[in-house]
Amino acid sequence: MPVIIPALHPVRLIDLRPTQTTVGFHEVDKKRKAWRKRIQVDGPEFLGRHVIPVILARKDRMYMVDHHHLARALFDEGVEQVLTSTVADLRQVEKASFWTVLDLKKWCHPYDENGERTKFSAIPKTIDKLTDDPYRSLAGALRLAGGYAKDISNYSEFLWADFLRRHINKSAITDDFALALEGALKLAKSKDADYLPGWVGSG
Fold first, then answer.
1. Using an 8 Å Cβ cutoff, are 22 and 133 in contact?
2. Mean pLDDT of 16-39
3. What is the tens place of the pLDDT at every residue in 130-156?
4. Under CATH, which number does the domain 5-132 receive?
5. Cα-Cα-Cα-Cα dihedral of 88, 94, 97, 99, to 10°?
6. Which CATH class, in words, describes the domain spanning 134-189?
7. In the chain, where does the domain assigned CATH 1.10.8.10 lie?
8. N or C: which end of the chain has fewer CB within 10 A?
């Protein structure tokens, strides 16, 4: 990935365009609670350290390629502006080719809350329209619990979410998230998951 160039001016959160259709609302809620605790302590410094990586597109639109959960949490908490960093400048790419370029470079994730691939047009234009995928929340919590290692590849958590989707019922996540996480930890250590990014094995 090219060197990220920090932007020198704030950008309105509502103007940032997603490159995925879903987030995990459980994870968003955790980030909202964490923000509330730090807003009076080091809120501005936190925002200065957590810039949103974006792709520049025609009409100077900015498409997020990471930190969708943080952006949604900050938006829901009433934060209006964040700093961005430019991953790539695709303003010369024609509209008809833009999403294909993003897809081939793994800069977008056009899959719905059921793990089914969607049309690019289904990706919302604003972060407040992102829908909930409980398995993405479970995958995020699984990594934090040591179920797998952080991986630099884009959207790796969604690969884990898709794996968990095939082994754990959605009702189990909504009924008892902690218990579902225990089950996910056991699955993550199994050989069935050894193809996934960040797999740490049974040891």
1. yes
2. 95
3. 999 999 999 999 999 999 998 888 889
4. 3.90.1530.10
5. 50
6. mainly alpha
7. 134-189
8. C
